Amino acid sequence: MPKISVIIATRNRCYLLPRAIESARLAGGGVEIIVVDDASEDETPSVCATLTNIRYIRTSRQLGVGGARNVGLLSSTAPYISFLDDDDARLPGSFDKQIDALEAAPEAGMIYGRAFYGDEKPSDDFYPEHCPTGDLFWELLRWNFIPCPTVVFRRSCLTRAGILEEDLAGVEDWDLCVRIAELYSVIATDEPVAIWRRPSQSSGQFTSESEKLHQHAHRVHKERWLRLPRAVAASPAERRALQRDFAARASQQLVWEAASNLKARHLPRFARVAFAAARMYPVGVGKKFLAFLTSRLGTETVERT
Fold first, then answer.
1. Burial of residue 67 (number of CB atoms within 10 Å: 0-12, 13-18, 19+)
2. Which CATH number characterizes residue 29's domain?
3. Which pLDDT does position 301 carry in this prediction?
4. What is the pLDDT of residue 274?
């Protein structure tokens, strides 16, 4: 029986698959690799036919990342589970180390670690800077600091918490971590365990569509996470503080992303992100945009002179 099932959801990016699969194979012993082809229209079936020691599952229609991962999850057999995107990679031996840590901490529902940013090779830049452990429920309600490709879940804990919510594109892994953290403690390793491809406008990743991701996060925070039993049991003051902290982090990131697009003169994208930010966080965003534009205009004035 395998020790860990690694589920790789993919769609129309067959050129990336061999690297992701090989990295999963080198990350530990007893690895069950399940590739879920989310109704690809490229050469994914023929590429997978050439790869050995994988389980290939093709969906009859496009389900999205969450749906494809659930297909793999329900088909998996190992006591530990990890999700790996087709454009990410695991570092050698990382699964073995994390599974050993989980087996030494039976109260923990999952373990995560740091991820290098990079493509073929890791850069010197990694995330997160700090890896808190223990009861992370309240921290995850404020913001997500857990890179999905670094996580190893205990299957029995997923059985209790439930599978991925398929209507939360881009934040379905964050939602799952919140639900796990409500019920179990979380452990971490400070060393990097994966290479995380940095989103860009041309990468085709959902996380590159920041306004849509933030819209999903805004909705799920209000409609689901604050209605979880532990959040409901919190005092009104604690709930308001959570909402303020979440809004502050989200609006700050949206302003930064809008500013980056304005600086790069991607005006349509700047407008989409800016309008989405103003709709979701009208109070905090206005002041942040004003501060940015003031500093920007001051810089341009200096440059002209």
1. buried
2. 3.90.550.10
3. 39
4. 83
